[in-house]
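Ticket closed. Logging final result for Pyroglutamyl-peptidase I.
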Amino acid sequence: MYIEVLPLPKTIGKYHGFEPFGEHAVNASWVAVQELQKLGLGHDINLHVAEVPVEYQAVQSLLPSLWTQHLPQLVVHVGVSGMATTVTLEQCGHNQGYMRPDNCSFCPKSCCCLEGGPDCIHSVIDMDAVCKRVNSSGLGVSVSVSKDAGRYLCDYTYYTSLFLGEGRSAFVHVPPLGKPYSAEQLAQALRAVILEMLELMEHNKGKNHCLHDQ
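Final structure:
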């Protein structure tokens, strides 16, 4: 899933989730994003929803066009993790270590996103701050923060998006449906998380951020 927030009088949000892969016959991220589309983010934010193939080459061709089409202020990606039991906010994306074949049995020969790129890129968003705010809101869905998105298509997508958007991106991992949250609960959590991200970005507008860890 991906969400795009644009610097227009009426803000536009674009969201994407991933297609099924491996043991995930139903990808909870895509289901949750579709529920989020029903909820909306308020009158000032239009949502655009898209499903992304679990393919390295598709990500490399799709993301640049998504970033250049509307020049978004923020892009948010959502993926499923079989190990997650909370809604997990990923703080950074990693460049190297991609050795697992995708849905087309393809794997980058270099095992990296961008040859010569920084090892790690952080989001401009303080995920710890977002986590604390949502957890204290009484939402009923636990939120946590991670610094390792898994070295598969989620991490690969996040790094690529962070690079293209100079850190103006976020990635949220959700657990499989019913383990323990329903699609509706995940959508409510995504809505709360994204609204907090937007508020933080607005508050921190104009501040400098260090995005790359060498």
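The two ends are 28 Å apart (CA to CA). No further action required.
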